[in-house]
Target: GroES-like protein
Amino acid sequence: MRAIYITHTGGPDVLTHTDIDAPTPKDNEVVVQVDIAGVNFIDVYFREGIYHSPTPFVPGFEGTGRVIYDPQGEIAEGTVVAWCDAFGSYAEQVCVPRDRMVAVPESLEPHVAASMLLQGITAHYLTHGVYDLSEGDSCLITAGAGGVGLLATQMAASAGATVYSVVSSEEKVALAYEAGATEVFFYSDNLAEDVRRRNGGVGVDVVYDGVGKATFNESLEAVRPRGTVCLFGAASGPVDPIDPQVLNTHGSIFLTRPSIGAWTAREGEFAMRAQAVTRAVTSGELNVRVGAVYPLADAAAAHRDLEARVTTGSVVLQVS
Ligand code: NDP
Model:
């Protein structure tokens, strides 16, 4: 089968389009013919070796396609599914854990189905888990026009929260407002001060920071006493180690570094979040913006663009 193969970690050029053997499923897995694979920032961390996988490996975690073989005979061949948490999704075939996929409603556009789960579930657990937003709350979202950012903005706004979004270009400003942001800012050293000024002079209840190194200090400054800083990613690089005393000086704030794994680990939790996302997307309540589609062979270009901050919304690879 055709796949993107990584024999050593590094820059986008290590993403090699080649022929490899099709994977063999374990008992709890289903073999799927991949139509479209989602591209996520976590794929960059694995490609770079920041997150570790033994080499060689096929990157990618999510996508949509048709079931071709279920060793347990439960899922009919041809069933259209979407999944996340199936390592090796940048390929014509992937083995998907049977408890990490959903059936795709016929009305769902395939590019949307391919990229709704990883970012959608993340946005869901951030806004309905790490800090349960409700009417009257306020939040700050960094990379507000990215894949997770646009979805988290919509979920936060529909929960009734005031949403401050941070982005890097005029195009992204417009997208963040369209998603429901109350006020959109460019990154700056005065970010926290600007946000506080708009928020009645006080810090926000929660900061969702997926940018990391470049924004973390402003995130600490922007939160109210006893508020929550949720550092959920490192698009600009990992945050330097901190002294816990910093949490005291900012007013007894909470700091968490969550993962989608931990926030879908409880019995039924993945299904609950995945179904909530799928339902909201299908009903039109949640809009997944597919910002760019690349052929599988151009996975390196997709990574380059994601890292160059030129993409908006989600990014997908057309596999077959
Ligand atoms: P995005 O579509 O948000 O792309 C990354 C964005 O980060 C860019 O578009 C850019 O937006 C912003 N950014 C800021 N600084 C940089 C930089 N130096 N280099 C590159 N990008 C930068 O990606 P995803 O939606 O896939 O992921 C967003 C974040 O969420 C990532 O950090 C990812 O690791 C994290 N994540 C965490 C999960 C978890 O469970 N913990 C699960 C899924 C994602 P702008 O131009 O506006 O700054």
